[in-house]
């Protein structure tokens, strides 16, 4: 009896010990699976619940606008801003026809009440550029090139930053503004050097000196990463048509510029510190591409002729215009993922639209667009697309 009981106890202990060893080994193996998963192998797209999730259009709002809109954007949830020739001032053009000055206007979407931003009006600059937080706009005031008797005086041509909060203008050096910082803390400008004008610190910091600027030649576009440190410069050589050079500069290391790639590129935009999106003709075909700065890999995102595109402030959504084989333009929207974009949603077919008349809201949930359906149309149509 004692021997039997002893055998039962030994057997039970062995079973429990074996089970514990199995559990410990299993848990260790699972632990190491998680621990060894690093950024190189990690793909956010695989684990994302939103992978390939199509954007959902909630409401399409038609704006009661009558006129030619040359730029439009959001101010807040209730107001938009746009420029058009509706000023009370006018002049005679080269054909002796009367033209009104450009006026920058504010429209309340709830009351449909239009307000002219006095004294914000100008002859020459058709576009306005809103800061990412939509609290300010950049614009210029200058001579009208269509005017019958143009007397160009540079000291009369001024640039401003207008604040919606206190309704005041800040005068900035003429023809220097290039791009707002992503956090709206200042802007990148160019004169004898490429510089950062920092509003928070009240300083101007040199990014590239005159010598470096001469090496880069003609700056066409600048894109700034969300970290507000990494800057990507698109430039072209005077003797090379349809060819762009893309340079990288870090604000922590000014005057250190690096050529990262080149090609037949229309426009670039940074989506994070390591990736750029660009439209153009690469590998012999027109498309929307992604360029990884670390691996130097180029990936096609959309095999279409992209006329223009706009990325939301959070870099998670994209609106773009495709030209088909018949020459018709259509507006789409989609989500941006780490290595691709989602299935797109068609917003409007057969339209003519400009870069400054397509913009995302500060909360990334709305898209405003002003466009023509026919080239011969006198007045724009203006819509706001609301997404869920």
Number of continuous helical runs: 3
Largest sheet: 7 strands, antiparallel
Anisotropy-based shape: globular
Strand order of the largest sheet: 16-17-18-19-20-21-22
Give me the count of strands.
Answer: 29
- Secondary-structure-based class equals mainly beta
| Strand coverage percent | over 45%
How far do the termini sit from each other? Answer: 75 Å
Radius of gyration: 28 Å
Helix content: 10-25%
| Overall pLDDT metric | 82
Low-confidence stretches: 19-50
Quick rundown:
This protein has 388 residues and is mainly beta.
Task: Summarize the structure in words.
Strands 16-17-18-19-20-21-22 form a 7-stranded antiparallel β-sheet, covered by helices on one side. Strands 1-29-28-27 form a 4-stranded antiparallel β-sheet, with no helix packed on it. It starts with a helix and ends with a strand. It has helices spanning 2-35, 44-47, 210-216; strands at residues 57-62, 71-74, 79-84, 90-92, 98-100, 102-108, 114-122, 129-130, 136-141, 158-163, 168-172, 177-180, 186-190, 194-198, 203-208, 218-224, 230-236, 244-250, 257-270, 275-282, 285-292, 298-302, 305-311, 317-323, 329-335, 345-349, 352-360, 366-372, 381-387. It is mainly β. It has 3 helices and 29 strands.
Using brief descriptors, characterize the structure shown.
single chain, 388 residues, mainly beta, four-stranded antiparallel beta sheet, globular
């Amino acid at each position: 009896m004692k021997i039997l009981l002893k055998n039962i106890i030994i057997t039970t202990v062995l079973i429990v010990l074996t089970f514990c060893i199995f559990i410990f080994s299993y848990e260790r193996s699972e632990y190491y699976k998680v621990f060894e998963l690093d950024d190189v192998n990690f793909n956010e797209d695989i684990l994302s619940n939103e992978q390939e999730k199509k954007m959902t259009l909630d409401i399409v709002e038609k704006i009661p606008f009558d006129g030619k809109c040359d730029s439009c954007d959001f101010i807040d949830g209730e107001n938009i801003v746009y420029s058009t020739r509706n000023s009370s001032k006018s002049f005679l053009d080269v054909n002796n026809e009367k033209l009104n000055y450009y006026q920058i206007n504010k429209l309340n979407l709830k009351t449909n009440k239009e307000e002219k931003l006095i004294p914000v009006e100008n002859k020459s600059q058709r576009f306005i550029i809103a800061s990412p937080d939509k609290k300010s706009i950049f614009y210029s005031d200058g001579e009208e090139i269509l005017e019958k008797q143009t007397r160009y005086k540079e000291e009369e041509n001024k640039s401003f930053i207008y604040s919606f909060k206190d309704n005041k203008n800040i005068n900035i050096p003429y023809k220097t503004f290039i791009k707002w910082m992503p956090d709206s803390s200042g802007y990148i400008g160019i004169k004898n050097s490429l510089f950062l004008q920092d509003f928070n610190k009240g300083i101007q910091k040199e990014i590239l000196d005159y010598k470096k600027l001469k090496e880069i030649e003609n700056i066409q576009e600048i894109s700034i990463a969300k970290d507000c440190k990494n800057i990507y410069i698109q430039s072209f050589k005077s003797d090379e048509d349809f060819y762009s050079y893309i340079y990288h500069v870090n604000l922590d290391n000014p005057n250190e510029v690096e050529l990262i790639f080149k090609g037949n590129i229309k426009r670039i935009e940074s989506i994070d510190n390591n990736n750029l999106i660009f439209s153009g003709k690469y590998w012999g075909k027109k498309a929307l591409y992604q360029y990884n700065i670390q691996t130097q890999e180029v990936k096609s995102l959309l095999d279409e002729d992209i006329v223009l595109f706009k990325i939301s402030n959070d870099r998670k959504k994209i609106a773009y215009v495709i030209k088909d084989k018949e020459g018709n333009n259509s507006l789409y929207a989609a989500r941006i993922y780490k290595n691709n974009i989602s299935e797109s949603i068609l917003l409007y077919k057969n339209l003519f639209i400009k870069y400054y008349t397509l913009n995302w809201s500060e909360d990334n949930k709305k898209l405003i667009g002003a466009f023509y359906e026919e080239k011969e149309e006198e007045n724009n149509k203006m819509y706001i697309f609301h997404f869920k």
